[in-house]
Amino acid sequence: MNLSAILKTLQLLSFKRIEMNAEIITIGDEILIGQIVDTNSQWIGQQLNKIGVSVYQITSIQDEEQHILNAFKEAQERVDIVIITGGLGPTKDDITKKTIAKFFNDTTIIEYPEVVAHIQKLFKKMNHPFREIQRTQAQLPSKATLLMNDFGTAPGMWFYENETVFVSLPGVPYEMKGLITNKILPRIQQQFKLPFIIHRTIMTYGQGESTIAERIEDFENNLPKYIKLAYLPSFGRVRLRLSAKGENKEILEKELAEKVDEIYQRIPEIITGLDDDSSLEKRVGALLKKKNQTIATAESLTGGKIAATIVSIAGASAYFKGSIVAYSAETKINLLNVSPETIKKHMVVSKEVALEMARGAREKLQTTYAISVTGNAGPTTDCNDKSVGLVYIAFVSDDKEIVQEFNFGQPREKVIQKTLNKSLEIIQEEIL
Fold first, then answer.
1. For the whole prediction, is pTM greater than 0.70?
2. Can you tell me the distance from the alpha carbon of 220 to that of 212, in angstroms, rounded to the nearest whole number?
3. Cβ atoms 310, 316 nearer than 8 A
């Protein structure tokens, strides 16, 4: 055992909170060619961070033996925990299991009867015949600790060698999440005494990250080494994330609270609140549910994206009544009762049309509130004289009607996303 390994072991034995770094490796050509989006790494990173493990690197590699072996060797040299997803299927293109066995010089295979029985049970439930090729999924290298996959056929594997944990998981998201939540995180927490990693995120609107950075430069320069500030810009907003890492949770929380207060004192007019790890649509839903109120949307340029975002939250049926996607002038007239005269006089991209759209949606769907959007997302202006990026958002209720004008610029994707964000922001502001 080398000196660094001895020191790492002594740290574990002393029960001192130690910093643990992880690398996430995704295996699959489908990720590299863009056929699927790697959402697994994002989710795994979030979960590791919650228990005090820092993600050092995320790597995506091909289903090729030497490439995988090289990635394992490099990861072992720089991190304490390696999380691998993908390549555990029963077909010939899934080579992760064999490659891991080769990496650990493990030539002995153990078949687990409980895994075979589990696979047979799953197949019977789905009325699928059990084929012998499926038995290979129950065969693991002898150095692996079995991690039973309750939601699929491919079990996870846990290895601990040369002071590094290797965890191999299936790539199917819901299977991977079940194993991470129920098997991996508890095991990591039991084996290692981890530091606390705490975040506080402040949401701002209306100013870019460079402007904000100038305004709080002295604050940032005086932060202690164990507190980091990150700027997280997106369309129309910047989130300021303060992250603290250390051994004493109470001290970290107290210091973060003080730093949040300092930022509030410097830029109060652009702060809309703290991000409590819940999305804006989730917070809007919680407000509506708490007040027993309902909402509808009338959408033009967003094509139903606002509605889709709202209903992405479980339980949205309690407060969301529906949406009318009125992309054409005819649909605005026929379904939302927008006056043809209003369109003729002001054109479809106007505050007058936006307001009538919102009124129509609220009346049709019998809701407490309604929000509407109309605008030019681009790249053309569809035979009107309004500039690309011009958007009107209207919000109506029993006692209030407002219309706001925005120019979100270009390109099209930016305009649509900013319209979505601003709409949710307006809803939250108006129902608070």
1. no
2. 11
3. yes
pLDDT of residue 378: 80
Question: For residues 272 and 205, what is the distance between their CA atoms, to the nearest angstrom?
Answer: 7
Query: What integer pLDDT is reported at residue 277 of this predicted model?
Result: 56
- CA distance to 41, 150, 337, 383, per residue, from 37 (Å): 10, 24, 41, 37
Strand, helix or coil at 144?
Answer: coil
Q: Where are the beta strands (DSSP E) in 35-153?
A: 53-61, 81-85, 109-111, 139-141, 145-147
Distance in angstroms (rounded) separating the CA atoms of residues 27 and 29: 7
> What pLDDT score was predicted for residue 15?
40
Half-sphere exposure of 66 (CA within 13 A, CB side): 0
**Domain range 196-275, its CATH number among 3.40.50.2300, 1.10.150.20, 3.30.70.2860, 3.40.190.170:** 3.30.70.2860
206 secondary structure, DSSP code: S
Choose among 200, 198, 193: nearest CA to 244.
Answer: 198
Residues of the chain with CATH 3.30.70.2860: 196-275
How far is residue 278's CA from residue 266's CA, in Å, rounded to a whole number?
Answer: 25
pLDDT at residue 297 is higher than 70: yes
Q: Which residues contact 404 (CB under 8 A, 6 or more apart)?
A: 392, 393, 394, 422, 426
Nearest CA to 198 out of 258, 279, 262, 238 is that of 258
Task: Give residue 170's identity as a one-letter amino acid code.
Answer: P
Q: Which CATH architecture has domain 280-431?
A: Alpha-Beta Complex (3.90)
Please write the tens of the pLDDT for every residue from 171-191.
889 999 999 999 999 999 988
DSSP 3-state of 371: strand
Q: Supply the DSSP symbol for 314.
A: T
Q: How many CB atoms lie within 10 A of CB 13?
A: 8
Alpha-carbon gap, residue 300 to 330, rounded angstroms: 12
Q: Which fold has domain 3-191?
A: Molybdenum Cofactor Biosythetic Enzyme; Chain A (3.40.980)
For 107, the token pair is 């030539």
All residues at 6 or more sequence positions from 234 whose CB lies less than 8 Å from its CB, including other chains: 417, 421
